Amino acid sequence: MIKESKGKLGILTPGMGAVASTFMAGVIAVNKGISHPIGSVSQMGRIRLGKRTENRNPLIKDFVPIAGLKDIVFGGWDIFEDNMYESAINANVLERSLLDQIKPELEAIKPMKAVFDRSYVRKLDGPHVKEAATKMELAEAVMEDIRRFKEENDCERLVMVWCGSTEIYIEAGDVHSTVEKLEAGLRNNDPGIPPSMIYAYAAVKMGIPYANGAPNLSCDIPAMVELSKQTKAPIAGKDFKTGQTLMKTILAPGLKARSLGIKGWFSTNILGNRDGEVLDDPDSFKTKEVSKLGVLEEILQPDLNPVLYKDLYHKVRINYYPPHGDNKEGWDNIDIFGWLGYGMQIKIDFLCRDSILAAPIVLDLALFLDLAKRAELYGIQEWLSFYLKSPQAAPGLQAQHDIFKQQEKMLNTLRHLMGEELITHLGMDYYYE
Length: 433
Description:
Elements: E1 8-14, H1 18-31, H2 41-44, H3 60-63, E2 72-78, H4 84-91, H5 96-101, H6 103-107, E3 112-113, H7 135-152, E4 155-162, H8 179-187, H9 195-205, E5 210-212, H10 222-230, E6 234-237, H11 244-257, E7 261-271, H12 274-278, H13 282-300, H14 306-309, E8 313-320, E9 329-337, E10 343-351, H15 354-374, E11 379-380, H16 403-417
Parallel strand pairs: 1-2, 1-4, 2-3, 4-5, 5-6, 6-11, 7-8
Antiparallel strand pairs: 7-9, 9-10
Helix pairs in contact: 1-4, 1-15, 7-8, 7-9, 8-10, 11-13
């Protein structure tokens, strides 16, 4: 039984820069009839129900009881005091003519003071930050912000989606192994607990669904998974699947399906937004690199397909180039081979808009996590891997990266929640003698 979506849903974003401002501005513009929620599967995607002959293909938003866009309230934290109109202007993603049509609504959204430590994001600094003696006190301050936001905005439910920057590379350690050790680490200012993990802890401790849009560890540790089950909080991470990796998860399954070999896959990105500046730091880049490199390994399974993929050379580069701003450019050179080993090449030049691709992901993750909470689905929401570059999976399981398998898992989860028959595409369209 799924609880009804009643009242307002508050969506809180740690980080209120380009991605968050583009997301919030977009929802407001859609609600005012200025545009359409293009890229949002929850809003524009359809789902097949039953047999093909039944022709039942409703919009997902009409099939499952997700929150309506007009019931959403926005909030969040940032190291700068800019309201969302100012933030959107600074991000330079959306046209001024659009932003001016929704200026009053955006100006009303102002960030709370952020939890921030420059030692984890060396390329950024800002004055709008919280101060406390311990990381546990910072977590408690975030929880107080959440309680106050919920009361002041008359929200029935809340969801948190990390839209902040990529932190330096951290590997899971002993402090991340249990809830007790994590909480002791918060009290003792353990360096293995970055700001993103403080936000995740605050949300999950309060039973609030949490999604991680960056490659930071955040909620992808045993302690947070354990806590999410204790407090009945759905969690999903990590790293929004937007530009170059989106293309990899579309193209690689197709090459594998046709048993075509791959000798090398060279990828480089140029971008000039705040994310690009942060990733100009080698330790932050390593966090992103690890997230990006695991994709092909899982999809192609070189141990099972050694002739085709065991010698695959995979290289990823990210270059900070300020003139491009938020318009990220992803170049891919793919050396493939076919019948009798004869070589071929594929070249991709994806001139994408990073925040334009990420904004609908923020919306869908928030709405689906809220649905999961009301459907009493707790812990890791693997069915939301569709949106993530380095998705979480249950212990002992390898994460699924093939976007088409991810899509089927997501759609079948929605069918299951609504009591509809799962679709396997095994209909008997042939006859036996």
